[in-house]
Amino acid sequence: MPDNDTIAAISTPLGQGGIGIIRISGSNSYQTAQSVFTSSKPGSEDFPIPRYLYHGYIKNNRGKLLDEVLVSFMPAPNTYTREDTVEINCHSGIYTLKNILEAVLGNGARLAEPGEFTKRAFLNGRIDLSQAEGVMNIIRARSEEAANIATRTIMGDLSAKIRDLRDELIALRAPMEASFDYPEEFEDDHRPMKVKGAVRLLCGRLRKMLEGAERNRAYQEGVSIAIVGRPNVGKSSLLNALLGQQKAIVHDAPGTTRDLLEGHLTIGGYPVKIIDTAGIQGSIDPVELEGIERARRAAAEAQLIMVVLDSSQPLTIEDLELIKIGEAGQDKLVVLNKADLKMKVNRKELDNIFPEMNILSTAALYDKGLGLLTGKIVSILDHRFCQPDESSLLVSIRQENLMRKVLMSLETIAEQYETLPEELTAFHLEEAYNLLGEIIGETISDALLDKIFSEFCLGK
Ligand SMILES: Nc1nc2c(ncn2[C@@H]2O[C@H](COP(=O)(O)OP(=O)(O)OP(=O)(O)O)[C@@H](O)[C@H]2O)c(=O)[nH]1
Ligand SMILES: [Mg+2]
What is this structure's pTM? Predict the structure, then answer.
């Protein structure tokens, strides 16, 4: 596809709402909109003054009236894409939006690909790649924290940091390059020790940025928590209590939940997916066995596992086995549910067997103990994901991987400074510089760009 033809898409969600917007971008956008727009003012030109809203109607090529609209024309270069842009504000109904888009597409525009408006903003130099990723993240943000980070990225905070780092690398490399070109002038002092110190400091800053990246990603992508336990201990009741709605079926017959059931909420700024699972026990029923297998898989994939026990029943071997579920790196929490009933679990025994374990009591049926439980979940997650410092605005795995490679290049210099030939030091500095360039999209392949933008939603 050429990158400068005229594109159009529905830029608002396809559903019922007060206003829906169809956006057209490219050199033909004015003519395209003109072909479908009729002004409500008899005798007036269509929409002559840039950035004014004009009232009128959209008709298709057969003259059929589609909607009453407001249209505005924004000439290049002061637009999102830096191209001529028209926005049609219509009523947001699925058919109206689709009909208007169809009319526009029949008059010189083609349907935009996902993320194509933002890709053009990037290609035309309005934003860099990290800002474009910020745009994607703000659209997808599921928590206040994620939205805050995305806003800062869009405003160019990450870009500024990356550019500063690149400037520092250039400042370190420039004297070396000069010494390669004019060796006689640098005979005595061609490897200033300050390079080593500066690279070390840079490594420290990069490590800090990387530490915070994980929490940023958790805020953006969310965290999954699996609830597991024997049948009938109150797993589904706990899910319902945490969600504040009767999402899962609760019943006193064991084996009520057969499949995985997800609920979503925000806890301490983390978008959390809580997964209720089938009770785990020995069984020969193939359906139950499949449910148990799914429960185990959900636990294996979760960042935090909540093992629920019925505290009104004495501890069983199965309970003890279940507490051991998961891998070494996974966080775990034991919930002694049904705390409103007489306690039969021997807490001392439990503490002795699992001295390091987080153990809490709840009565899910009566919404008791939930505040302490969510508080504990937040402190476990906060501990798992380091608190980012101000400078950490990395959010995507792509950015993180690149930053790790930058760090590796600089660590090589810092660790082997005395023995590393100067050409290799310069090489690693250049490599780090180029990798940082990939984060902001200055050095990146077309195929990778296409892949990044294809993950955007339609109309953005
Ligand atoms: N007294 C008391 N009963 C509870 C509590 N939580 C759950 N129950 C009861 O325990 C029974 C089982 O609850 P569920 O939430 O369906 O248990 P589950 O672990 O999801 O069970 P399965 O889906 O069969 O594995 C129901 O009768 C609930 O009302 C609680 O905190 N106190
Ligand atoms: Mg259940």
Answer: 0.80
